[in-house]
Write a sequence for this structure.
């Protein structure tokens, strides 16, 4: 079965629509999201509605937590908090309730764990190999978990623990997980990529062949930028889309 993992959509309806068309073309059977549907961009309701209709499950992101009233956003910088609160005011009661119902972690297909930041802490940013090693050590306690999918950094990543116990970082392009290996995979961000590639990023995983493929999709970035500016949201959230930062 082919599953798609999407993360950090961040109210970018144009990026999400382009990715949705790609998922149809790839005949993906199930879609999961890793949180941060809301925040930063101008179309939170469109993105949450899509997730409610199309995904088989998802995770609460830190921006979603502010948008649905579960968190005050104490750790947010000022512009991010402005956008998350703006999202809150644009969500329907049912979409806020949906965000409020999302868990911090979700096990799917009995072999995969979905989290926002990291398995140990939803707010932890996993950027370094040392951090990934710690998380893989803690995952070893549950032998059923083959892969933990995480987001939050907006940067695609793939860290694999080999059968000999070594841990390696591999290029997040295409990789096949072998017997006895475990991994941390980040699909990158649909709506606000930060790896200097402005195209929407997501991941498709084939549960039978265990092949993970990171995909990029161009979308109408100008339209997204215009909507952010017209909404009066911080200008930086528009310009960074064009730069992929
Ligand atoms: Fe995010």
């Amino acid at each position: 079965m082919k599953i798609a993992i999407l993360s950090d959509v961040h109210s970018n309806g144009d990026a999400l629509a382009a990715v949705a068309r790609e998922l149809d073309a790839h005949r993906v059977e199930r879609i999961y999201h890793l949180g941060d549907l809301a925040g930063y961009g101008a179309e939170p309701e469109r993105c949450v509605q899509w997730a409610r209709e199309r995904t088989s499950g998802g995770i609460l992101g830190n921006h979603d937590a502010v948008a649905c009233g579960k968190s005050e956003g104490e750790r947010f910088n000022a512009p991010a908090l402005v956008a998350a609160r703006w999202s809150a005011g644009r969500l329907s009661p049912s979409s806020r309730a949906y965000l409020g119902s999302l868990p911090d972690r979700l096990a799917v297909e009995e072999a995969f764990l979905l989290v926002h930041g990291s398995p140990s802490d939803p707010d932890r940013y996993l950027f370094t190999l040392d951090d990934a090693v710690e998380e893989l050590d803690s995952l070893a306690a549950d032998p059923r978990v083959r892969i933990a999918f995480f987001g939050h950094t907006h940067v695609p990543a793939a860290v694999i623990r080999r059968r000999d116990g070594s841990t390696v970082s591999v290029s997040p392009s295409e990789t096949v997980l072998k017997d006895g290996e475990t991994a941390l995979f980040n699909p990158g961000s649909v709506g606000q990529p930060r790896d200097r590639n402005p195209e929407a990023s997501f991941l498709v995983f084939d549960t039978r062949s265990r092949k993970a493929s990171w995909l990029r999709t161009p979308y109408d970035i100008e339209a997204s930028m215009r909507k952010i500016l017209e909404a009066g949201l911080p200008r930086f959230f528009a310009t960074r889309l064009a730069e992929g930062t």
Remarks:
- The chain has one domain: 2-243.
- The pocket of fe (ii) ion is lined by residues 8, 10, 36, 61, 63, 152, 154 (CB under 6 Å).
- The chain has eight helices and twelve strands.
